[in-house]
């Protein structure tokens, strides 16, 4: 296994300089030296030891992805096409930017606190949490957090990446009407969150056409 000292000797620089480049502390390193060291690291397939990276004080470069549920739509969460594609995209983007992804089971908030603390994650992307769960976690863990597809009771008081469910429902209603359907039945699993907003958009589209949509079958 190639060592940090070996990389330094190949580049003709000190071990400290190589360490600084690996950890992103390059304010006092010329671009020429950065490029040279980076090229050697790639050629030698050098992988930094995670323990050393975490102890360096420059962060673990780990992004925790919290899954707040084990099952979705009658299947394990990772079998769900939406969840699988989402996590795959997150992994691709984080690795392209020099970070790593760690999946964390989020049904137990204490489990999230324990793992995120032990591994010193840089931040958390959280799927499947409501506002109450988020607040409970944020009181016990001082990390940057972004929720995915979360629906607050009132105004947003947290960072969230979501889907315009209302618009999606509206477009479905418009499409069905354009196909000649004058009455429609909207079937949903719940009366809240994404199901509720999709229903409202769907209902509005049908009503705008002067026709009716049947109340959701829960």
TrEMBL record:
Domain HTH cro/C1-type residue range list: 4-47
Gene3D superfamilies named in the record: 3.40.50.2300, lambda repressor-like DNA-binding domains
Start and end residues of each HTH lacI-type domain: 2-57
Keywords linked to the UniProt accession: DNA-binding, Transcription, Transcription regulation
Domain of life from the UniProt record: Bacteria
Regions crossing the membrane: none
Any one GO MF annotation of this record: DNA-binding transcription factor activity
Protein name, as recorded: Transcriptional regulator, LacI family
Organism expressing this protein natively: Coprococcus comes ATCC 27758
């Amino acid at each position: 296994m190639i060592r940090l000292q070996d990389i330094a000797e190949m580049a003709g620089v000190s071990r400290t300089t190589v360490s600084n480049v690996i950890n992103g502390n390059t304010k006092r390193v010329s671009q020429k030296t950065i490029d040279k060291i980076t090229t050697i690291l790639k050629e030698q397939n050098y992988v930094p030891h995670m323990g050393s990276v975490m102890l360096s004080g420059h962060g673990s470069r780990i992004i925790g992805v919290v899954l707040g549920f084990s099952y979705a739509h009658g299947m394990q969460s990772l079998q769900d096409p939406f969840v699988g594609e989402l996590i795959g995209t997150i992994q691709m983007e984080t690795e392209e930017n020099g970070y790593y992804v760690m999946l964390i089971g989020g049904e137990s908030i204490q489990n999230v606190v324990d793992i995120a603390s032990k591994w010193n994650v840089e931040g958390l992307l959280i799927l499947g949490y409501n506002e109450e769960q988020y607040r409970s976690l944020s009181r016990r863990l001082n990390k940057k957090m972004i929720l995915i597809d979360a629906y607050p009771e009132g105004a947003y008081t947290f960072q969230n990446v979501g889907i315009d469910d209302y618009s999606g429902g509206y477009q479905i209603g418009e499409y069905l009407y354009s196909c000649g359907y004058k009455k429609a039945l909207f079937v949903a699993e719940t009366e809240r969150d994404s199901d509720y907003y999709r229903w409202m958009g769907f209902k509005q589209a049908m009503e705008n056409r002067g026709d009716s949509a049947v109340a959701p079958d829960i």
